[in-house]
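Chain A, query sequence.
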Amino acid sequence: MTTVLLDPLAVGEDGEWAVYCHKSWAHGAPTRYGSFREFMLDMYQEFHRLTARRRGQAFVNDTTRRLDAQVETARQDALRGEHERAAAALTEAAGFGRPRAHGMADQLRRFHGQTYSVHYGGLAQDPLYSGEFVPLLAVEHVERSWDAASWTRQMSSGSDEHREAAEEILREVTERTFRYTAGGPFGEAVERAREQARWGRTETAWRTLLAAIPRWAPLGPDHLAPVGLLADPFLGPLITPDRGRELLATPRGPEAVEHSGEADEAREAEPAEVSSGWLIRRRTTAAPSRTASSSWRRPDRPSCPRGWAVRTRCWTHR
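Chain A, predicted structure.
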């Protein structure tokens, strides 16, 4: 049973009474709304959300048509790098229970650093996407020390083959042997970045990943970004919320802008983990060699001791 109370002693600036709604099956205190209008809007949203969950019934009206078109536009915005606008549109549509919206919104939320109630809208149970999203659920399972029964329940809706694969992924995540993989040029960059991170070159690894993002390809129409990176024990820690936003702001997939080879090199170049002066001092004090390779690059030519010349991405002794 649902009980709705209007409080005449709690009046807002607009003269509206506050509303308290208590649902007998819900735990905790009643939900408070600032006005009756706010309460009715929430009920309207809940009606669409609950109706959308009914199987075997197609519920279509002007609101659902508008929101479904909004979801598709948000998908394109997200791939173009306009992730903040896409997140707002997808969050609204997910509140109305529109298909696809929740899974896509959760991908953006995860890169924004949000982990609470992130379940990817059933994408982990879809064979097309499960390899990307099951590892993320496994990481959360391990970090929260949930028992084996909870993992079994979480994967129960999949096929026997899906559940066996999920168990193997959980084992790899628990033992920290899981490795994120992807196809094509982006997958090659992932392998390079992992090796760089393994040797402690974390800034270089991040730049390698970021430079390759335009060449990432989605697994399907509901895939907005390579979220599986976050489950990799070497690459996941590189992606802070700020870097996650930087990644999302990079056009990718079919919406990616064509980058010239020079632009890609500039983005992949290793940033200054230390000052350039330290590099120069190190080269002058060490035994000179013909060429000392480095991924270092600066937009401006730095000053160098006599006898040293700076060239693109290398230091050369004359």
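The radius of gyration is 25 Å. The chain has twelve helices and six strands.
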